[in-house]
Amino acid sequence: MEIFLEQINYIVFLILMLIGVYAMMIKNNLMKKVIGLIIFQTSIILYFISLAYKDHASIPILAHHSGADHHIDISHYDNPVPHALMLTAIVVGVATTGLALALIQRIYERFNTLEEDQIIKILKDK
Amino acid sequence: MKILSLLLVIVLFIMMFPLVENLPQFGDPNQISNQKVSKYYLEHTLEVNDVPNVVTAVLADYRAFDTMFETAVVFIAGLAIIFILRRPRRRKNKNGYVYEKLVDHVGYQPNIIVQTTCRIFVPIMQLFALYVLAHGHHSPGGGFQGGVILGSMLILLAVCFNLRIMLQKFSIRKHILYSAIGVLIFFMFGFLAIFFGKNFLDYTYLNTILGLTDKESRSLGILFVETGVAVAVMSVMFTIYANLRTSGRINTAEQ
Amino acid sequence: MFDIVNLIIIPLFATIVVRIVGLKYRNITFHITLFSLLLVLFIATFNLFNIDVVSYVMGGFSAYKGIELVGSKFSYALISAITLAALLSLINSSAVIDRHFNLKKVNYYSLYLLAMSGFIGLCLTNDLFNLYVFLEVTSLSSYALLSLGNKRSYLSSFNYLLIGSVGASFYLLSIGYLYSITGSLNFTEVSNIIINLDSSIIKNIAFAFFIVGIFIKMAVFPFHFWLPNSYHYAINPVSSLFASVGTKVSAFIFIKILLGIYGITFITQNYDLHLLLEILVSLAIIFGGCFALIQNRIKRLITYIIVIEIGYIVAGMIIGTDLSIKASMYHIISDVFITLGLFLFVTILSFIVSDKHTVNLNYSQLYQCFKKSKLASWGFIIIMLVVIGLPPTPGFISKWLLLTSAYSAESYIIFGSLIFSSIVTVVIFFRILESMLFKTEFSNELTVRKVNFSMVLPLYVVIFILAILSIYSNELFENVINPFIERI
């Protein structure tokens, strides 16, 4: 059991991802499905950032001794690569959310409701 | 249906729970993802770029191609929201012409406390955004962060004052133009490298133009490129806000 | 001038130019788009005939420290195919956009060029995270472009957005797992490390997430539900672009990562996994066939034919012999043109039948098409013959190779489903032939318009290229496909 408490970041990532997927599957309202998608994407970002963590390490900004050729000990600095990758992933998530909200606005104008079962009923009646 | 999904989710959790112990130890400094490329970046970036903030160096120099297409993603978001939401004012219906109802009076409620606070905050936000942008080399910051602060400054103005006045001063056409110019700045600083015989996005061509060393020209190239990103992000943030708020029915004429 | 990086940055530069110039001069945007895609086609075909494998690293760093692009002959061939598909869809789209969506013209062409830039980047990149960024570029532009049209298209594009984002995020998660055991994001470096790693659990988890993500993007059986709706309700030029390009480039990514990082023995030697994937692929082909049989609407019928064709490509990979992998890769290129031809015919048919931009097409309207334009009808019949797999056509080459390798590798499930789908396509073909040539009682529609030759010309360009693909198939296999497989 202690092994699992040491890897708590992966457990939290798993729980968040499954909450997001569950919300997308069962919620009826389209807006809540979008919120489920956002939670799901955030959990993946959490996974990457937790890969970058090192014990007793500081942020990946090098202490800048001007000109001196100090030996840089990498165990004092967090891994910078997942941080950079996740900046990109966050921006992609923002763009997807903006698009989803715009599509929801158009769907609402057409069907006058955002509940999925009512939309399916309207489509069947046509 | 709900119970089936709940069962599926619980089964997935129980299946993946024991697999967690095979993943690298949380916080282990010697795991393999911290060696190889990451070690090279941490150890050599002061010699190559002279940029202490390694995240900015990775984002804007080593992986600048990714960042260019990420700026393109931001640009796509702005374009796509205009594409989806804007519609012609005059439409032909079965019975004749139909005019779309425009959202003209967007919440103008003069409140002196809100407006005065806004007037105090906006110059501070602009200054801070430019500081975050320019200081991305030495502290957490950079293009995206500065651009988002500038975008939220514009949104604050639109919330405290009238959206219509904001759009009169700074119309959606100008925002589209600035976002395109932001991507163009990024693209041009990478593209000029090809004319000097180097690979795309190799900033060292600046040392033939400006007479700097390799390190300094890379550092300067990162700054220019981040400026382009900030301009693009600022415009797109405000475009998304304005279009989502009025559902595309803004009283300005073009596309 | 002929560097492979120009293939990606020319559409990107063109989209910025289109967007800025379009603020003032809107009519020139079509010509800028056309010119830039022609330039990309020229550079891609030049590279296909003259230049071999090339590696290009951005920013002047060494290969494993920066982002690398690798161009091989197969990727040049695929890029030429998709650029040609984009050009032919573009010519069709100018008529529809000018007439019905004139206010959205500039944004339409900008999004079109950005989508093409993303697809070309997907074929060329050698860096795993860069592939994710290009995947998102193409996905976002496709969500926006596919939502144009009638009111139902917004709902189907929204459903595609939900499931497509989940697929791309699963791909991102799988490269996260691969990064945690290899420490690198470059495709060659990761494949060198992982091929030597035996039966690591993380490798299997990464494979599972990758398969789910890429099957969502490719529309293979359990995850194909977004495809018929979103391509049916979109306007014709947009569906002809994304149907012919989108799923095929995802299939290329699937082949590249499966062969390069995991190796084909990963699937063929693991009996349970092999059985599961065989059943999945056979269900994909059988369900596609069944749904295609019950369809009355032509456009929806064609989207189910796409599902069947993607099933063939994945079946070729799952069978796992040398010959079947080569058949899959040949089928990717020929399927770009088959799907393009089918949708080009649908464009012509909807132009004949009605004035609106979205119209329901049944079998009953095929007779009007036959009366108004015999050329277009014969073109459609020829392309359906390619889908069935009549001997000289490229469809026959891929189907025959798949059937023989399925039989020799003892995958009888796949063998049975291939035969079933061939029977289904023959039935559909005869149904089309009957409603085109013999049924005369449905010709009561009033607005039947004349079609001039320039509209039918793209269809015959596609048929010409399919003929070239079948005549030169030997050279194609030797020079283009075999080196790719040997390199990996």
What order do the helices and strands come in, and which of them pair?
The complex is a heterotrimer of chains A (126), B (255) and C (488).
Chain A: H1 2-6, H2 8-26, H3 30-51, H4 80-111, H5 116-125
Helix pairs in contact in A: 2-3, 3-4
Chain B: H1 2-16, H2 37-48, H3 54-62, H4 64-85, E1 90-93, E2 96-99, H5 112-134, H6 143-160, H7 163-169, H8 172-195, H9 206-210, H10 214-246
Antiparallel strand pairs in B: 1-2
Chain C: H1 5-21, H2 29-50, E1 54-57, E2 68-71, H3 73-100, H4 105-124, H5 128-146, H6 151-182, H7 187-195, H8 201-218, H9 226-233, H10 236-262, H11 265-268, H12 271-294, H13 298-319, H14 322-353, H15 366-372, H16 374-388, H17 394-408, H18 412-437, H19 453-471, H20 473-487
Antiparallel strand pairs in C: 1-2
Helix pairs in contact in C: 1-2, 1-4, 2-3, 2-4, 3-4, 3-10, 3-14, 4-5, 5-6, 5-10, 6-8, 6-9, 7-10, 8-10, 9-13, 10-13, 10-14, 12-13, 12-18, 13-14, 13-17, 13-18, 14-16, 14-17, 14-19, 15-16, 15-18, 16-18, 16-19, 17-18
Describe the structure.
The complex is a heterotrimer of chains A (126), B (255) and C (488). With 126 residues, chain A is mostly helical. Chain A has one domain: Helix Hairpins (Orthogonal Bundle). Chain A is 70% helix and 0% strand. In chain A, α2 packs antiparallel against α3 and α3 runs antiparallel to α4. Chain A is elongated and about 75 Å long. The N and C termini of chain A lie far apart (57 Å). Chain B is mainly alpha-helical and 255 residues long. Chain B has a two-stranded antiparallel ribbon. In chain B, β1 and β2 form a beta hairpin. Chain B is globular, with a radius of gyration of 24 Å. Chain C has 488 residues and is an all-alpha fold. Chain C has a domain of 225 residues. In chain C, strands 1-2 form a two-stranded antiparallel sheet. The radius of gyration of chain C is 22 Å and the shape is globular. The mean pLDDT of chain C is 88. Classes of the chains: A mainly alpha (126), B mainly alpha (255), C mainly alpha (488). Chains B and C meet through α2, α4 and α8 of B and α1, α4, α5, α6 and α8 of C.
